[in-house]
Amino acid sequence: MTAKARANAQRATPDVDRYASLGKILRLVRVLELTQGMTTAEILESQALSRKTFLRYRTAIQAAGLPLVSEAKGREKVWRIQAGSPRSALRIHQAQAVALLVQRRGTTFLDGTGFDELLEDVYRQAEATLGAGDRARVRHLDRKIFDRNDDAVVHEGRADDASELISALLYDERLEVRYKGRAEAFTLDPYSLVIYRKGLYVIGWSHRHGEIRRFALDRFDAIDRRRGDRFKYPQDYEPARFLGGAFGIAGDAEASLVRVRFFGKRAIEAVTRRRLHPSQAWESVASAADGSRVLCLRVSHDDLDLARWIYGFADEAQALAPPDLVRQIAARTRAMAERYAARRSGARS
């Protein structure tokens, strides 16, 4: 290849290393803006840079006209963005770093949506603003504060969908969506992104159904934002009111009085410890002669999450009202008992 051909090829090929370096330089600038000063050693450690690379980045930052200055601190230099520069005064302390990590650990179900990377970036930037002593103390927080992330909905590979959805929510733009099992796409005016039991759901006006509906993000096959196709966000819409009658997120029937009797201290304590619904209340303070207590809720009785929650207590819970819920649970309980009986019979034969 001739020298001219090599030059043309270099101009035509994106300089990946240059873009990668630019990203690291911008991250360093953000960190220095958030701190009141970092020594060279602190910068090298927190940004995983060699001294030679940092000197190159320093030159690039100053050449761009950014007010990066240094002052002597013993045998070290302390680097900072010059006083008066916007955002240069923000600094967090150890307790705030812990609070941020607790929040980050509680949102690991967002992995794969793009939110996880943004939250991690926020935490790392905040961590970099800590003093040397505090930064040493929080070094192993990712192991000291841990979330098992049980029963989380898998959102892997949903970064593009989440980005389209958030943009549509911010700009009041319509979405073209296709739900799993449906061949045809339909239009959705997104009103809310709802977090429920470590899963993401969308509430909005479905043009196909002609009403407000809820959809699970992981059940979409495709989400495309219709740029420029805006709708008027309804002033009278409130997600809390729309979901108020649901025990979980899927109830469609009108809210009615649901009564469930719980037997045994363990079951009663398990219910008492958790806020299941704003309407929950024990029917009376005193327990019945057998030690049982009746919980009352005003929710949609056809909510599948309600039935599954009651099933989870097995013989420690009994639905008392409304009649439709009692019949549903009784029928499914009989079917389950018959299934187990059939298995035992087959095992003996």
Number of helices, where a helix is a run of at least 4 consecutive DSSP H or I residues: 13
- Evaluate the radius of gyration: 28 Å
Number of strands: 12
Low-confidence stretches: 1-19, 86-90
Q: Choose one word for the global shape.
A: elongated
Strand order of the largest sheet: 7-6-5-4-8
Arithmetic mean of pLDDT: 82
**Count of discrete domains:** 4
Q: How far is the N terminus from the C terminus?
A: 80 Å
Report the sheet with the most strands, covering strand number, pairing sense and barrel closure.
Answer: 5 strands, antiparallel
Helix content range:
40-55%
Structural class by secondary-structure content: alpha+beta
Strand content is 15-25%
SSE pattern, N- to C-terminal: HHEHHEEHHHHHEEEEEHEHEEHEH
Topology summary:
Layout: H1 3-12, H2 16-34, E1 38-39, H3 40-47, H4 51-63, E2 68-73, E3 76-81, H5 94-105, H6 115-128, H7 132-137, H8 141-144, H9 159-171, E4 173-179, E5 186-196, E6 199-206, E7 211-216, E8 220-230, H10 239-243, E9 255-262, H11 265-272, E10 281-282, E11 293-300, H12 304-311, E12 317-321, H13 323-348
Antiparallel strand pairs: 1-3, 2-3, 4-5, 4-8, 5-6, 6-7, 9-11, 9-12, 10-11
